From TrEMBL:
The chain crosses the membrane at residues 6-27, 39-62, 82-104, 140-158, 170-197, 217-237, 249-271, 304-330, 342-362, 368-389, 410-431. SUPFAM superfamilies: SNF-like (SSF161070). Pfam families: SNF (PF00209). Its main location: membrane. Keywords: Membrane, Transmembrane, Transmembrane helix, Transport. It is a multi-pass membrane protein. This is SNF family Na+-dependent transporter. It comes from Halodesulfurarchaeum formicicum. It is found in: Membrane. One of its GO terms (cellular component) is membrane. It comes from the Archaea.
């Protein structure tokens, strides 16, 4: 049977944008901003998206489109030898990320329900409501429902499932967030929120660059879905005639717009309700938004629209995560798509079960996946493409664009030195941070004995 392809170019772009826009933009981004100095973080983040994220995305695209295979097959075909295990690492990362991503997706579904039934308004405090949602049997059920939605879409295939889904989901995200940003603009705290969010303090950047650099690099990679073969897989369903440069720019611009828009929605809501944006932890956005909207005009409708958008965004990212695993099973083992999706979905569901019992597993999985595995996968792929196969990479990028001249070597040198250096520094900080986290958690455990 012929391998599937995207029906239209816009279908591919929207699928990649749908993958990029997700919990990373809405759940992770506002709190990275507030923990890392507001607008100062924004400056660094924008610089990294352009200087690190965009060149890295092109590198993934060329490997996928050139080989037209799943990540394992793609890297084997492109590089051969032991490099194929890098594709295996990507499939593994897909499993880990989706297992906890889906649990958080389940929380979002519960918050949609809570907005409709008035659940979080009826509970004594927003934090108490989050406590009910975060763990337990209902959390397990919500995790299952979210995975079923993911399985349902992906089992339908590239054109009938993913492409059709993102053509509805991505415009919906942009439209609802646009409306909410206009609403947020009318709130009394909007002025203070914009100043906090949009006017960078250069002195702060000079003083805190050591923590800003890895935080911005990590967020940049996570939000653009880089470092685990999503963009390789999605580009493998492309024809030859596309201009990957324009596709990449469109994806980066749309994803960054949603991150900025999220800030324009979230910060005025929090400032107007007097909620501190620096509250951290995995429940932060849930607790603070639920608390804030109750005090605002049309609060429950705003809550409903907000959580609905988060759910759509999470779903359009989750389908890209599972597609990495599914395309591997189809290409390498000749498995039927429906069967591959169900098996992968059930395995990922099981891996997520511990997360539904104790939120400590979120940090355990998230730091490992986002700050170590994604960055490791990213560095290895960048070395492979830019140092070992630069000629082929440039040639592939030129397909559909034409002779790039010195722009091609500029791209390769960007990847060879600054991209790889920043990723290595982030990897080092990620590993040391994780060791600290594990020893801290272990000491806490011993303290309870
Ligand atoms: N980019 C997604 C987000 O921002 O929520 C998360 C993600 C998807 C990360 C796919 C990595 C990935 F491969």
């Amino acid at each position: 049977m012929a391998r599937e392809t995207w029906g239209t170019r816009i279908g591919f772009i929207l699928a990649a944008v749908g993958s990029a826009i997700g919990l990373g933009n809405i759940w992770r981004f506002p709190f990275q901003v507030s923990q890392e100095g507001g607008a100062a973080f924004m400056v660094m983040y924008l610089a990294f998206i352009i200087l690190i994220g965009f060149p890295a995305m092109l590198a993934e695209f060329v490997v996928g489109r050139k080989t037209e295979l799943n990540t394992v097959g793609a890297i084997r075909d492109f590089a051969g030898g032991y490099w194929q295990y890098l594709g295996g690492l990507f499939v593994f990362i897909g499993f880990v990320i989706l297992s906890y991503y889906s649990v958080i997706g389940g929380w979002v579904l519960r918050y949609i329900l809570g907005s409709v039934t008035g659940g979080y308004a009826a509970t004594e405090s927003a934090a108490a409501y989050f406590g009910m949602v975060a763990t337990g049997t209902d959390t397990l059920i919500a995790h299952a429902v979210f995975m079923l939605l993911v399985i349902g879409i992906v089992a339908l295939g590239i054109q009938q499932g993913i492409e059709l889904g993102v053509k509805v989901m991505v415009p919906a995200i942009l439209a609802i967030f646009g409306i909410l940003a206009v609403y947020a603009f009318t709130l009394p705290g909007a002025g203070e929120a914009y100043a906090y969010y949009l006017s960078p303090d250069i002195g702060y950047i000079m003083q805190n660059w050591q923590s800003l650099v890895p935080a911005a690099a990590g967020q940049g990679f996570f939000t653009l879905s880089l470092g685990m073969g999503v963009m390789i897989t999605y580009a493998s369903y492309l024809g030859d005639d596309k201009n990957l440069g324009i596709d990449g720019i469109s994806i980066v611009v749309l994803n960054t717009s949603v991150s900025i828009l999220t800030g324009l929605v979230v910060f005025p809501i929090l400032f107007s309700a007097g909620v501190d944006p620096a509250t951290s932890g995995p429940g932060a956005i849930f607790v603070s938004i639920a608390e804030a909207v109750l005090d605002l005009p049309f609060g429950r409708v705003v809550g409903l629209l907000f959580f609905l958008t988060v759910a759509i965004a999470a779903l359009s990212s989750a389908i890209s995560l599972i597609e990495v695993v599914v395309s591997y099973a189809i290409d390498e083992f000749g498995m039927d798509r429906v069967k591959a999706t169900v098996i992968a979905g059930v395995a990922i569901f099981i891996l997520g079960v511990p997360v539904t019992m104790n939120t400590v597993f979120i940090n355990l999985y998230d730091i490992l996946a986002a700050q170590i595995l994604l960055v490791l996968g990213g560095v290895l792929l960048m070395v492979l493409v830019s140092w070992l196969h630069a000629g082929e990479a440039i040639e592939e990028l030129e397909q559909g664009i034409g002779d790039l001249g010195s722009i091609g070597s500029l791209w390769i040198w960007m990847v060879r030195v600054p991209v790889i250096l920043v990723l290595l520094v982030s990897l080092y900080l990620g590993v040391t941070g994780y060791i600290d986290f594990l020893t801290g958690a272990f000491a806490e455990y011993l303290g309870t004995l």
